[in-house]
Amino acid sequence: MSKDAVFEKKHVVSVRDFSTSDIEIVLDRAEEMLPILGGKKEGNSLEGKILANLFFEPSTRTMLSFEAAMKRLSGQTIGFANPEVSSVKKGETLADTIRVASSYADIVVLRHPQEGAATLASKFSTTPVINAGDGAGQHPTQTLLDLFTIRKERGDISDNHIGIAGDLKYGRTVHSLTQALAMYDTELTFLAPSSLQMPREILRKLDEGGIQYWLKDDIGDAISELDVLYVTRIQRERFPNEEEYLHVASSYNINLETVENAKESLVIMHPLPRVDEISPEVDNTDYARYFEQAANGIPIRMALLELLLGVN
Questions:
Q1: Which of 29, 139, 169, 289 is catalytic?
Q2: For tag attachment on the chain, is the N or C end more exposed, with fewer CB atoms within 10 Å?
Q3: Which pTM was predicted?
């Protein structure tokens, strides 16, 4: 059996579904997708296949990149970007929506505001389910493209000191990324106000794995040591009330002064969308890699779609 065959007809709910060898298979396959993405090679491996994009929560990059990935490989997409136009408006359960959608498509991509929704969907779907974000839970394909970006920009994922800044309490992207980075030989610094620091259960897992990490609230105290700075926005929609959000809003702003003491090789990443946490003046520096990071979502998702649908 091909090593790629272990992916066929599997669900992707959490980054914990992957081993390091699984991750490397996806990243290597994504490298093979780059000529197709650049128009230098024709892609038709998913011709006749249909992807159902079910987005119960707003998205730009994730939804569009899954559509682009499918179409770059000659597949088709169906679905919705607004649950108000679906039968959920009439009271249909998620389980029934998934049952029906999976009978129409070869693979289902789900984004949902409730943590655990993707796990539920995987129990009722007759086709592979990819979690495109479930509340404050997991966002595994974002993690894969983040790892792909780090590997492209730094040459390897291991042997890097990675700072993760912003909303670490509610940010599903950083929860997934931290769990994945724990599989590699990295050092981690978590940069956030105490009220938004990484959840204790994730830190406990790092402790159990012997992963070295630091908790800080001042980016200036860490910037000179970092190889990668991964910035996230303060997620207003995750807060239980407006008062709590306003207390920490605009906690960080990465500008030219922030990076004065940074390594020349520093890579700044952001899952986007950003609000005011990275100043536009940083966009034109050699540090900025967040737009390239967003573009990397297409080859990663092309690779994953091929693997889950059994294209070798």
A1: 139
A2: N
A3: 0.90
Q: Indicate if the pLDDT at residue 73 is higher than 80.
A: yes
Does residue 270 carry a catalytic annotation?
no
Is 61 one of the catalytic residues? Answer: yes
Which residues lie below 8 Å from residue 156, measured CB to CB, with a gap of 6+? none
Compute, in degrees rounded to 10, the torsion defined by CA atoms 26, 32, 34, 36.
Answer: -120
Condensed to tens digits (0 to 9), the pLDDT of residues 236-247 reads: 555 555 565 555
- Residue 224, φ and ψ in degrees, nearest 5: -70, -20
Give the C-alpha distances (Å, rounded to integers) separating 37 from 30, 41, 69, 283.
10, 8, 9, 23
Closest-CA residue to 175 (of 131, 219, 224): 131
Of 111, 112, 233, 289, the catalytic one is 111
Query: All domains of the chain, ordered by start, with CATH?
Result: 3-138+297-308 (3.40.50.1370), 140-294 (3.40.50.1370)
